[in-house]
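Protocol step 6 of 9: fold each sequence in the batch and record its structure tokens directly after the sequence line. For illustration, a two-sequence batch is reproduced in full.

Sequence one:
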Amino acid sequence: MTTMQAAWYEKTGPAREVLRLGELPVPEPGIGQVRVQLHTSGINPSDTKTRAGWRGAALDFPRIIPHSDGAGVIESVGKGVGEDRVGDRVWVYNARYQRPFGTAAEYVVLPESQCVLLPDTASFAVGACLGIPAQTAHRAVFADGPVSGETILVAGGAGAVGHYAVQFAAIGGATVIATVSSAAKAEHAKAAGAAHMINRREEDIIARVMEITGGSGVDRVVEVDFGANVEIDVAITKPNSVIASYSSTAEPEPVLPYYALGPRGITLRLVGVYVLPAAAQAAAVAKINGLLSGDRLINTVAKRYPLAEIAAAHEALESGEIIGNIVLDIC
């Protein structure tokens, strides 16, 4: 039996207590699948939350190899997949969605469609950053149509998703306001294309947005924490605007202020990256790869760790102090 190096956990808890490193069987591709030899694995908050047992969630499988995102080279194919795909450099997404086999391993088997050609101009480290952050950002920005001429507030504009959202919105012709929590994060958002930065720890977000927009408010909000920021979002949005939220960590069961939203025709868009409609998925992939090929997408790999240091990598993400993406180097 051929084996591979992999990291996994069999119970939830702190990273150093539950993550294990060892040998597991190399998976075989089935019908319509390919096997990717991974060079990198991307870590996202959903990965660390699942491993930690966030909100009391139990394991959905007895053993879990974590992480949904990664990049590598297609090494073999199953029936129904052309041999010409062998050797393709790819970035992969949704490896862990409804499966126990993520990218924190030397190999992963996935449906061919979840393995996207990685432009030659992009490194494997960059490829590991795209699945969840960039696709979430694309959906949040464009789900309700073009943004040219609009004003968009990106909450958490220096975060992994927020940084891509700022770029997509600015490239799409919008004026972007980004909320941040430090001067360093303000510079990060500015470099991505934000026209205005608001330090949420030092400034009144509502007052500043109204000052920037001449009292009219914003056309859209890309929201990192709906429950924590709903009162702000209600106050800064125009009639018939959109609040596109991809998380609500601080308050998982927020109260919906219906009469502050409904009479003004506000659209509340909940973004689930794992279940993107096929057309939205294709649009995100096309936009991401188009910008990558043209060297127009800023990708920030903040820290890299070897697979053996996966626990430290999880802890770094959980610290909240890292500006950019955290990547594991597999080979």
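Sequence two, same batch, same settings:
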Amino acid sequence: MEDTSYWLPLIWVGILGIAVTLYVVLDGFDLGIAILFPLNPQEHRRDVMMNSVAPFWDGNETWLVLGGGGLFVAFPQAYGVIMPAVYLPVIIMLLALVFRGVAFEFRWVSKPKHQFWDLAFTYGSIVAAFMQGVILGSILQGITVENGKFAGGTFDWFTPFALFIGVATVAGYALLGATWLTMKTHGEVSEVSRQHAKKLLLIVLAAMLIVSLWTPLAFERIYERWFTWPNMIYLAPIPLLTAGAAWLVWKGLHRNEDHTTAFYASVALFLLGFAGLAISNVPYLVPPTLTIWQTAAHPSSQMFMLVGTAVMLPVILGYTVFVYYTFRGKVKHGEGYH
């Protein structure tokens, strides 16, 4: 039993990591497309932008459900602490996602009087992305815990650090959206998105640099993780790889014949940023007090759910790969799946 109580939580952390990462990457670029709507007021551009993600967007949100449900099942104490701490941002995020989802469907059937749904699609996505960053930032900065329960206030999440992470998340999603459109579309939309992506890359890199300096200066546990010997040597590849990914994005955006490098390098940039945040907080699931093992459910509960997850996770992954493969290639004006 001791062995299972040690490695089962690690397996579940891996599953949650996969779910969160896939959600951020896959739903990130279609949220990013909506964030770019104000920069593309022309209706024909917006039609192409939405058609580029029409086959994928609702399936992408599956990973959000898996992440939230997995946290509840495998780490109920962490769920019971985190949710009260970020209750308002979570509710606002979910409502924004509802507006965004309804707008995606209603925009087509309400033409030509679809301006309201354009606004709902745009601002629903912006608010959802911003709140996701706020939730992340509020967890990273630490949650007040006493006797294993949340002991903070309703607005503990409302801090400069968490709000900045929210803004950075919006910019990051916009970068993913812009590089996706560069890769997935032709002509005017692709070229305009390429120009937007160049500016967004600089904003995202500035945000990553600020966070990389802010977190060790504000949180001693993160300083000790990154700037003590020999951790500095072990962790040096992370910032070096991040710089390399940023260079590949920039290079891809400046090569007219290259339509894939910028997007995949942007994904790599996100993954490296996620890895850096994870390294900063391991082994805490609720920084800076509750570890993975302290918040884990009983091994029998984790094992029971793991059996079902082991069956369903490959199915979901297989479906995701199938859909992206089926609808591969560039989207042209007038084409669509709605």
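Proceed to step 7 once all outputs are recorded. Observation for sequence two: Strands lie at 145-146, 149-150, 284-286, 290-291.
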